[in-house]
Amino acid sequence: MGDVSKSDTPLKATFKVRLNGETVTLATVGQAYSFISNLSAVEWMEFRSLHDEALVALERAAGNAMLTVQATNALRMLFVRAKLL
């Protein structure tokens, strides 16, 4: 897939993340990819390996909807460790 951030493949769960006083809803691969790739690398530094795994999983799921379970699980692990959920 060319631009992962434009993928409308649904995740297996919808994440509601609270960031800077606003709630962001992440329901698709594209929304999640945009969210975790648009934040500064410094903000994800503590969770670098989980962040990288989530990005790769989302890229794969954008091209193959069968992989959305893995992408959803990778996001869940990242968000729990980062205390965003």
UniProtKB/TrEMBL annotation:
What's the domain of life for this entry? Answer: Bacteria
UniProt name for this protein: Uncharacterized protein
* Taxonomic lineage of the native organism: Bacteria, Pseudomonadati, Pseudomonadota, Alphaproteobacteria, Hyphomicrobiales
